[in-house]
């Protein structure tokens, strides 16, 4: 799975509704070098 797919999947979980914001930040930090291009474009 690509980083974009993982991020997309995390933001599309209405059944969960309680996605830890910390986990998202950890994922962002982990793939910082790759997603930074997507964020700052």
TrEMBL record:
So which domain of life are we looking at? Bacteria
Q: What is this protein called?
A: Uncharacterized protein
């Amino acid at each position: 799975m690509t980083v974009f797919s993982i991020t997309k999947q995390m933001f599309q979980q209405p059944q969960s509704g309680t996605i830890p914001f910390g986990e998202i930040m950890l994922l962002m930090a982990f793939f910082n070098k790759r997603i930074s291009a997507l964020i700052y474009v």
